Amino acid sequence: MTGVDVVDTPVAELADAVDRARAGSAFLREKLGDLPVRGAEDFARLPFTTKQELRETPFLDYAAVPAERIVRIHSSSGTTGRRTICAYSAKDLDDWAEMFARCYSFAGVTEADRVQLMVGYGMWTAGVGFQAGAERLGAMTVPSGPGNTDLQLELMREAGTTVFGATSSFALLIAELVEREGLRDELSLRVGVIGSERWGDATRRRIESGLGIETFDIYGMTELWGPGTGIECSQHDGMHVWSDHYHVEIVDPETLEPVPHGTPGEVVVTTLTKEATPLVRYRTRDLSFRYGEPCQCGSPYPRIGRIEGRSDDQVKVRGVIFLPAQVDTVLAEVAGAGSEFQAHVDRDESGRDSLTIRVEGSDRPGLAGELAERFQAKIGIRVDVDLVAMGTLPRNAGKTKRVFDHRTL
Ligand SMILES: [Zn+2]
After folding, report:
1. Topology, domain 1-310
2. 106 CA distance to ligand 1 centroid (A)?
3. Which of 3.30.2310.20, 3.30.300.30, 3.40.640.10, 3.50.50.100 is the CATH number of 315-405?
4. How far is Cα 191 from Cα 229, in angstroms, rounded to an integer?
5. Domain boundaries, the chain
6. For residues 4-36, b (16+ Cβ closer than 10 Å) or e, as one string?
7. Residue 333: what pLDDT?
8. pLDDT of res. 5
9. What's the CA-to-centroid distance between 10 and ligand 1, angstroms?
10. Confidence check on the interface: ipTM exceeds 0.95, yes or no
11. Residues near ion ligand 1 (Cβ under 5 Å)
């Protein structure tokens, strides 16, 4: 069978992971049955696990270790429907800290750094994940949490912060404030570790130039321990994924067949070492692709492309698939265009759909027309452009909503 993507993980290791998962988890035992995994073909026949299944199964029914071995739980945002709860054994937390420390190392962070964590704590995985990794590395941590830009800047000055972790939305907010108030020389920032939402090159350039830093895109989600599954290296050409803990497949989201390297599809993950909430062929809904060739940096860890969106984010307008990442690509290439945008999809009384992109930009003459042309070429349908002044669209401490579908379907 061709196209079965088990290049990075020896089949015996995959079989072990699957056997451990179903030995411990009542849910997975029932779902996967007892078919042995003797080769790539057997593995490829195992059913996928969906977000919905994880959400609807009580976490102790799903867990592959007894409750007394669980030392912590986290939950995902639950913005769409019920929360998903994931459980962690002591070893899971230890492995996570190790993986996250590796992420920092790939970003050039060392024990000499001071790392400010402007990310969510509590039930979220970001805060404790970013913190445990930095502490494992031996860096000084400043657990400031998200929000309150004035306090963040005060702490940055007092602590001599050199590295921060944040969502791209919040990093942009900080960068714009620092630029507006001319504070850059008072700060010692050099690296930003940015995660939890898709962000485009235009946003990235504004953050980097506003703060005078290098940024690194980090990957992860609650079900995969949290952030720390992988990160960019200094080449900034895709994200390395820790293949000693994860087996990654990329499949066509419609047919669920594996796609060749370089072809975008849905990221499907099997965890190899996770004890309490192991995943077998878990559909993340994230869209990315696998690189076929090794990275220039020499690291043996495989790479996936930066996340292009979630298969839930894509909307169909007049028969064409539209992804917010397409807007990012255009904004990064047009002079005078800002990085912030909203896409509004409407339907008129005759049933005709229209796509309007509200975007921040300068007052350069002809900018709106140029953007409309470029969007049409990229997306494939006519796009109305609503140009607004820089700084007028909302910035959040967390994730930013990009697509507003006003159609009643
Ligand atoms: Zn690399």
Report:
1. Rossmann fold (3.40.50)
2. 8
3. 3.30.300.30
4. 19
5. 1-310, 315-405
6. ebbebbeeeebbebbebbbebbebbeebbeeee
7. 87
8. 43
9. 22
10. yes
11. 233, 235, 295, 297, 299
